[in-house]
Amino acid sequence: MSLYGDFNLSLLFLKEIIQNMSQHIAKTVKGPIEYRLEGNGPTVIVLNGGHCSRDSRFSHERLVDHGFAVLTPSRPGYDATPPELGRTAQDAADSLVALLDTLHISVADVIGISAAGPTALAFAQRHPDKLRKLILEAAMATPWDEGLKKRARLLFGRFERATWRMTKLMLKLAPKPMVRMMLQELTILDIDQVLQRMSQEDMRFIQRMIETSQSGTGFMNDIEHVVDNLEEIITPTLVLYSPNDKTVLPKNAMRVAAEVTTAELYEVPSDTHLIWIGPSAKDVWQKRLLFLNA
Question: How many domains does the chain fold into?
Fold first, then answer.
């Protein structure tokens, strides 16, 4: 092997060591919970969405540069957090409180992304004393469609590992068709026009998202999560959504806006479910930051 190849392997090995060092296991009263805690300041809990592994990043880590501590737990069923801690959204919310207590964090902001929406809502509902502000980003708030649940069980149940192995292999062999196939599930717009508007940075974001995806048993929990009586939520809430989202339909955001009296609805003109990329990503970032700092 060349010297250049040896150097690249050394960098990859060092990167893996650093990533492993940033992950911790908290021994809570509910059970072990894997987490990453970065930065200093007021704590923001980032609840990643469905299929997200410990390596999935959507830019929220940049909050560290603005004076926040970012706590990213692996939700129940993902990575090293047992699925039993979150069979329901309510169980998952209680497990989050156990994590905060273990880490001696008295109050936090919560960002619930996509399939983590019900957990974030249940947290606001059951533990308002632990929550300062709630942000929902392209987040589920209504029960899953039965057809989607059936499809999810087929792809991400017992065949979950095979599904992701095949998906990641296709990404290596034919990256553009794979990204196209993925985007078709995330937007109601014409896929060719969406692709034309995407930058190289947007493409890398999606490729990285696929590369770091792994459902474990967590997604089977997610599709069963339901939260009722949203009118009980009194925490200041920001709801970010895209009208072009095919994965999490706008009706989810509309439900929160209609039932939570403290909710602010913000429509993001994103082409897809991925409101963290594209021209509107800067608006999302600024709106989030202003809300947290207000």
Answer: 1
In a domain, 178, yes or no: no
Q: Is residue 73 part of a domain?
A: yes
DSSP secondary structure code for residue 292 in this structure? H
Give the residue numbers spanning the domain of 267. Answer: 18-146+215-293
Chain segment 240-278, per-residue pLDDT in tens? 999 999 999 999 999 999 999 999 999 999 999 999 999
Q: What is the DSSP string of 82-121?
A: -GGGGSSHHHHHHHHHHHHHHTT---EEEEEEGGGHHHHH
Tokens 């619930």 found at: 112
Q: Is residue 191 part of a domain?
A: no
Phi, psi of 292 (to 5 degrees): -65, -35
Total-model pTM:
0.92
Q: In this structure, is residue 181 part of a structural domain?
A: no
d(CA 87, CA 102): 21
Q: What are phi and psi for residue 72, nearest 5 degrees?
A: -115, 95
Consecutive H or E run containing 132 = strand 131-137
| DSSP-assigned letters across all residues of 200-259 | HHHHHHHHHHHHTB--TTHHHHHTT-----GGG--S-EEEEE-TTBSSS-HHHHHHHHHH
Quick: pLDDT tens for 100-132.
999 999 999 999 999 999 999 999 999 999 999
Phi, psi of 279 (to 5 degrees): -60, -30
User: Using CB atoms within 10 A of its CB, is residue 122 exposed (0-12), middle (13-18) or buried (19+)?
Assistant: buried
For the domain that residue 274 is a member of, what is the CATH number? 3.40.50.1820
